[in-house]
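Deliverable D5.2: sample structural annotation.
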Amino acid sequence: KLRDHGLGPHGRHDVTLSRARELAGACREQVRAGGDPIADKRAVLDAQRAEHGKRLTFDQAAVQFLSRKKAEFKSAKHLAQWRATLSTYASPVIGSMPVSLVELAHVRAVLDPIWETKTETATRVRGRIESVLDFAAACKHRSGDNPARWRGNLDAIMPKPSKIAAVKHHRALSVEDVPVFMARLRTADGMGALALRFAILTAARSGEVRGATWDEIDIAAKVWTIPAERMKAGKEHRVPLTPTAVALLDSLPRIAGNPHVFPGARSAPLSDMALTAVLRRLDVDAVPHGFRSTFRDWCSERTGYPREVAEQALAHAITSAVEAAYRRGDLFVKRRRLMADWARFLDTPQKGSVTAMRAGA
């Protein structure tokens, strides 16, 4: 079967007429000897492509991995965190290396400087490097064991994170101090103060409150339904609204074209520092998330509600696979009573003052 085989583009200076005759003659000699110049040329190109694939760098592999997996991330913020940690910690050490050459020593060079000082961050970086290298191996850009794997690998030479990481609790007020603080908070001005009050009344996370939109609120039914994509556990969460919470919502302005319950500047939601700024203005040594801890302490110390009711109110994920399989409801009726009791407690006058204040308060 006759096939055409090009010897180079017409007009190129390196393929003259005499050179073309030489190349054509060599091809004919190769065919007479039983060879196939076209197949040989394709084999060379394939080998060059394979070699180029092996030169894929870690940074390039990370970009491809995140591009393929971006639909799995809970939010754009979560994806940005992956990119930021890999760029900050992995890229300076292994970013320009061919992914096929990354070994245990290189992974340790990334992790050793931060393993004991930034343990939580380091464990996340390790897992993310492992994921990128697994992706590269699946795409045939590397072979062999994953040097970032923990079990049966790094666990033999690095301290266990749980043994070296200091447990940091969110700064929070005591149960006794919260009603006093709420009385002060009710006199504070600004959308941040209103959002913080609502967060405390609902025991919700700061991000859930700041991102709340009016279409999530059913005033008549006294229910706030947070969609799954805005929840940490990735599951829709219904929050019973007490009369106090409803009254707060009724007092808020509704701005045309702005869907947010607690709007910030330029039609955007409040910033992540808005609630913290309120606490700083009131000179209280606590963080917004700490009020969830205070709520949990109140449930345990001041009420007889079962543990699962309190955990459901906080929208905590069920860690037991067996319990998760059997618990189908969200204990909404019991949680409505729980939140009503919490609201009454917050409105109850208490003697004393907030004790968790900074020096000079």
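Annotation notes: Residues 62 and 323 are 37 Å apart (CA to CA). The two ends are 94 Å apart (CA to CA).
The annotation will be released with the project's public dataset once the embargo ends.
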